[in-house]
Amino acid sequence: MESIASNIGAIREQINSACIEAGRDPAGVRLIAVSKTKNAALVREAFDAGQIEFGESYVQEFLDKYDDPLLEQCPIEWHFIGHLQSNKVRSIIGKVSLIHGIDKLSTAEELSKRALQHNLHLDYLLEVNTSGEASKYGISPDDLLSEAPSLFHLPNITLRGLMTIASYNRVAAREEFRQLRTLLESLRTIAPDPSRLTELSMGMSGDFEEAIQEGATMIRVGSAIFGWR
Ligand SMILES: *Cc1c(COP(=O)(O)O)cnc(C)c1O
Fold first, then answer.
1. Ligand 1 binding residues, C-beta < 6 A
2. In the chain, which end has fewer C-beta atoms inside a 10 angstrom radius, N or C?
3. Right CATH number for 4-226 from 3.40.50.300, 3.20.20.10, 3.20.110.10, 1.20.1560.10?
4. What does the pLDDT look like over 47-59, one tens digit per residue?
């Protein structure tokens, strides 16, 4: 089996090539290593190979790793990429730098309320269901532009962009990534402060090159780094 360090090196090269092909600066694409189901020792191995940003999907699993002595000295930047229920907001606040999977106005309102209570500020992304698959979370593209304006003025939280999980098929995925980018552009035209609305979290192990072609600013890669789950 390849080591985590060499996997990360290979992915960084693929990111660079995809950026060159797309005429983009590789500095504009952040690699988030998705460490769900992988233990703290493996996260530490990736960190020691130079990986700083990690994504977690499950609240309790994240909290266990967050508190693990193996990672105590590591200035990791954690992303929460799972489906976040309102009643779990409280336990991760202050520990993550970005929350990717907000798909309901009520969850954003809860986020705002808790951030205010803790006197913190939080950045988040809205999840959009671009594939239309019933099994996936996310606001429908049709509802996004009508629902988002009520979020712009919530205190202590800032909407930074959009996130999606695309179809398994890479051709379909590319269309969906393009759609997410178009949605972000539309959202920027109605946002009070478009300068903060810049992030597209899209692309995973099987389709991050297509996502980069379509403007991803963050890709979330798990199995290509850590192996199968
Ligand atoms: C698991 C997961 C990933 C990583 O998927 P891989 O195919 O293993 O790269 C990315 N994004 C989300 C939201 C996930 O849940």
1. 34, 36, 57, 81, 165, 204-206, 220-224
2. N
3. 3.20.20.10
4. 999 999 999 999 9
